[in-house]
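STRUCTURE REQUEST FORM
Protein name: DUF4190 domain-containing protein
Source organism: Thermomonospora curvata
Requested output: structure tokens
Priority: standard
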Amino acid sequence: MTVPGYQRSQAPARQSRDGMAMTSLVLGLVGLPALLLCGSGLVMAMAGLVLGIVAAHRGGTRGLAVAGIAVCLVTLLVGALGLYWMLTKAARCADVDRYPTELDRQRCIEQEFPFARSQSSLEGR
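Status: completed
Returned output:
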């Protein structure tokens, strides 16, 4: 029973605890295109993975945390495969038996990685 003119006190509204889970999901999604920026997406995906795991253990919206973890794992997988592919091509160009002179190796790098052309080769064209 309440006294007229007074209100019952209500429990404060429960705050949402999905901030880390949402951050994990966003970092995983932003990390995919950021892989093209010198692999910075790998760092984002690792941070998102840690946040997703912490959010899943703390409770809250577990589904959002699992989605963030999954997207971060996909980003890490794509980044690792891209890094492996690029390093394999670079190692092939560094093979002294296949490309005996420095000029041959430089041409291989320019052919395999067109974005890595030196200034001198651009001026000669």
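Reviewer notes: DSSP finds five helices and no strands in the chain. The CA atoms of residues 46 and 72 lie 7 Å apart.
Form closed.
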